[in-house]
Structures are given as C-alpha cells and as structure tokens.
Amino acid sequence: MEIEALQSLFLKHKERSLFGRYIHSNHIEPLLTKLPKEFKVTVIGVSVNDHNIYSITIGTGHKKILMWSQMHGNEATTTKALFDLINTLKGNSEMSETILKHFTLTIIPILNPDGAKAYTRLNANSIDLNRDAQNLSQPESRALRACFDAFKPHYCFNLHGQRTIFSAGHDNKVATLSFLSPAQDEQRSVTQTRAVAMSVINRMTETLYKEIPGQVGIYDDSFNIDCVGDTFQALNVPTVLFEAGHYKEDYDREEVRRLVFQSYLVALSAIRLNTLSEKDVEMYLKTPQNEKLFFDIIIKNAIIGGVIRSVAIQYDEQLLSDSIVFIPKIVKIDKGLSNYGHREINANGKPLISINTGELQVGMTVNSVLLNNEVLSLKLGNN
Length: 383
Description:
The protein has ten helices and 17 strands. Strand 1 (40-46) and strand 2 (52-58) form a beta hairpin. The strands form four sheets. Strands 1-2-4-3-5-9-7-8 form an eight-stranded mixed β-sheet, sandwiched between helices. The protein starts with a helix and ends in a 6-residue tail after the last strand. The protein is an alpha/beta fold. Helices cover 30% and strands 28% of the residues. Helix 7 (192-208) packs across helix 9 (254-273). It folds into two domains: 3-292, Aminopeptidase; 295-377, Urease, subunit C, domain 1 (Roll). Keywords: Hydrolase, Metalloprotease, Protease, Zinc. The active site is at residue 243.
C-alpha cells in the first residue's frame, strides 16, 4: 500500500476525541454508543471493579481476526489506533468494503478497564493479565479466553505499548514499533504457525521502513506459556504482538498511533492477498532485536563531585488530576555511559548540581538543574 494513501486515510479518519496517553472506558463508551448498527457491540465480561469489557464485531468475511488492546492498562496507543481503524471501516470506501467483505473482526478495545482508569499495567488485583493465560484467575483473562474460544479466530493481534528505553538493535535507533511472532515451545521452533505470523510482520516492517528506516524491532521471543500470545500461538492460531514505542519528541504517542493504524491496514491487506514468501522467516530473523539502550535524557561530560560523569534521566509517568505528567528522575550516574538519549546534553566539563540540595543522587526528581550556575530545565518540552 502506498504511504501517501495510508497517511491520507489516517488524517481523514483519526478519532480526534482520543488523544495522549490516558485512555479509559469513559473515553470510549460514548464512541461505542454512536456506532452504526452493523457494528455489534457486546459486553463480554466485567472487570474486578465491575467495569464492562466490550467487544466490537464487524464484517462478513471468512477470515476471522481477534484484536485486543490495553491488556496492560497504561498502554493506550494501540487503542487510539483501533478507533481510527473503526472510523475507517465506517466509511463507504472501496477499502472499507474490501476489508468487511473478506474479514470478520472482533475488537476488544480495553481488556483491562480498571488498569486503564488507574493508569497501571496490572489489573485491580495487581495481576499482570499477560501472565494469566493458563491460570485464568482473573475475570478479564476469562473474558478474553471465552471470546477466543467462541470466535475461533484465524489470526490474533495482541496490542501493547513499550517504554522509551528500547532500541532496535545496537545502534542509535529507537524502537518506534516492535513486533513478535511468539514462540510455541521452549525450543522456539519456527513452526508453520509462527512462520505465517512472521510473514505478516515482514509486510508491516517493509512499509514502516519507508518512513522510519531501522526503527522497527523484534521483541524477545523467550517462551512463556503463561503469556497470552504464546498460548494462542501454541493453539496454532498465528498471533502477532504489536508494541507501540517511541518516536522523536512524541511522548503523547500520536505519531506512533498513526504508524500503528497504518500497520493494521497493511497487515489486513497482507492476510487478504496472502502475500507470503519462503524467505519471510529469514527476513524476520534478520530484523534487529529490541535492546535497552535508551534513556529519556543524558547529560554527558559534567563535573559531579569533582569527577567527569554522565547522568541518565528517565521520565516517571504519573497520573495527576486525570492527566499524565512526566516527572524527570535520575536513574544512573556513571563515569561513562554507552547508552543513547532521546535528548542529549553535553556539559563540556562544566559543573552540574541540584538546585535544591547541591549533590545529585540516583532516585532524585530533577525538574531543573544548575549547569555552570545556569538553570537547565529537564521538564518535557524544554529541549
């Protein structure tokens, strides 16, 4: 698919009521009530705190795809992109008609409504739903599994978000999007099911490289049957893990949202056209692995306690007054850092101290510091 056409679709169908990092059920329920009758909205379960878990089913095609987002409540980028996709399917375009003719989609926009409301990874029982695929101890896990069993999908899209720390490989390339075809066994065998998921991932990667070359990574494929993706893959349903990552100065994840939306369309097209290649496994295995090489800010070559050191700062995301704030905190002070920073500052051998206490320490919140007696703001948006 042509990049310009994908970009145009996004601009036309972006759900503008959804923005930023904090998305929960109160944001999506008004959208669900406005869907045309062709979109079947169902309550498939309730959360620990009795919030509804919704699914949306649309299309009449033979190929069935199950998509779920916000299994981890604080990972909303893929949810925003789902509603952009839904808006696209509402339109009377050739693309929407083609998708709805060939596919039946069941979309769970927020699997973990309690975690989404609290802006936490875990559910209200402090359980990681992505480690509950076998025990099914939580109502949200049981709702997903019951939906899977009843729907009997041919493909699964497991939609997540990842931290800003990840690089695509060992170079100074942030992992803006990462994918995974989960393992089916301890040996991480490349089964036919995995190979199909790898092929879908390759089509998305090829398109993404036209805009963000080198910024697509492959997530760790260590086998864990307690993970949902591994469980569904082990049941021979090709499953693709999406990890929405970081893009330059895009802490609201709006540019990444666009890239995720475009990737949905590319994946559907690849499945519909069956554009699989014998070389896809080889291509997939050559895609750079995710590495943890980034910090949000690095201040290099600063004099701290009489010694030249570097300071690594990471934003701590906190929910305050119904919005997410990014609190800069020192996570590492070292004589030499080989990591990369999304924002890098060269102190050029000048003294660096805390405004309040003088001495910089790991764990300290540092909205501003004094670099050579001049105030340096570290708040987001002060690059």
